[in-house]
């Protein structure tokens, strides 16, 4: 090979890869693909009934001025890549609601890097965002940005995860699900499905994640209290991924073939468990599976009887986030912590509500 | 075994350690098997062995390529990302049928291997740096191609993932065939000898007139192609294309399998049988900890302990 040719080998190879990747791809049943994640269809969020004496916030107390939301610019900072149905649906919902209200929207995605999210938010402020909606990647480390936002009187609403700061001072309010409550409701479904007796396993989410901790706590506490004869005999991480969920379930059903139920802390791991049960020759409904999220695939699993129930974790923050901002900027009281009301999919409603799944 | 007996009669530390480095992995597999037979419910069943074999197949296939890279005194960190890229390519090309999809994934793996190999062989970049670039970039590319998990419903793919021939699952058969192929290439071909000579001493190999660059290029191409096959099989088994998580941390499992299997990181030697045993050891270790429901963090700690033991054995051998 001539020296030049040698140097070009790498470039050629990379081009080959790109050609392969884009050139004449033909994926399976392109038309039949379910269009998941559209923000406009399906149920937007509804706030749960506020408990009495819940703290509220007003523009006067927060320090700022009233403004007309329809003429304002809203900045949205997303934490993770839109690579999973939850994030896709969340961003789509925010975009759809902004469009519906005719609000100018600026968006940024931190690609799971916290330092990028901080600079994203700073960028959004300097680009002229009057209000911010943030889906935080972390709970801590927000002080510098919050100070900057406060100095420019930019109200902030955080969605899906909370940040460690003072509501109505550092930020206006938090809108999100109660993950402990999701765990409790999953436990209720499991108790109903198994008759409150037998052995269940938990497929945990990523270790150290607050969603994992809270969904586990809610489930275990409820089982302990309401169904002491239901034993949690197995608890291993599936890291919120289908492949890990499948591998762990395969080990589980080998060593404990008499397992009665599996609680998967997200849909993907539950679908992995279904794969494992299918390839082990089990029948649908043999092992009761309860999952959390409400993605289309999982709800389809309920329709097909492989999954017993799905507790929803609604990602469609758009309508509630914007109505909160609207109320706030027009001088009304808004809650400091707005817990959303999540639905559930059971054999009774899964078929009818399949279109609501994301 | 003769060496072991000799070691016991004349307690020569170095000899014992050398024996441990080469054969310790088999002892480890034996101990874990005995432990499980004694203490794990339902361990001795055909279905259980089938599960373990199917789960270990992708790790083993990737580890074979890694063994070649390490044998040439290099390393290939991009294998996990190649698996992600191949799962994306499956989603893109499955419309033409599973064989075309397999061809596309292998070509993708070869392309990544050519980039890695060219950087190492012709540009002179350190293998750890060259393949690190594609470890990061490869998964990025995979996610650009297929931004989110897509289901794979093709019946042919499904059969590949969960079907079997005479009771042996396809992924296991393919892994075994590749073990024989790589074993043959290392032991019986000119390529194998040249690879080991280069791993032993690159300057000497160059002085001896060996085609150092071509051989190195082939090593990384082989590693890329093997990782692509592993990605294809993992996709078939998962029945979904999931570039976000498929193959993540696979490079660490593969390196562990190779090193624990007795292939020295200093190159010049490739133990194919040891690599198979190393992969089986990791699989059994993970399975044992999961089946006994120990906290997940223990799996990582246990794996770390095994690596430290393996490296310790290697150190003693190096001292001799």
TrEMBL record, chain A:
It comes from Streptomyces abyssalis. Residues 1-27 form the signal peptide. Keywords: Signal. The keyword Membrane does not apply. Belongs to the bacterial solute-binding protein 2 family. Residues 27-57 are annotated as: Disordered. InterPro entries: Peripla_BP_I, SBP_2_dom. This is LacI family transcriptional regulator. SUPFAM superfamilies: Periplasmic binding protein-like I (SSF53822). One of its GO terms (cellular component) is cell envelope. The keyword Signal applies. One of its GO terms (molecular function) is carbohydrate binding. It is found in: Cell envelope. Residues 83-332 form the Periplasmic binding protein domain. Pfam families: Peripla_BP_4. CDD domains: PBP1_galactofuranose_YtfQ-like (cd06309).
TrEMBL record, chain B:
Keywords: Cell membrane, Membrane, Transmembrane, Transmembrane helix. CDD domains: TM_PBP1_transp_AraH_like. It is found in: Cell membrane. InterPro entries: ABC_transp_permease. GO terms for cellular component: plasma membrane. It is a multi-pass membrane protein. The chain crosses the membrane at residues 20-39, 51-70, 90-112, 119-146, 166-186, 215-234, 296-314. One of its GO terms (molecular function) is transmembrane transporter activity. Its main location: membrane. Pfam families: BPD_transp_2. It comes from the Bacteria. This is ATPase. It comes from Streptomyces abyssalis.
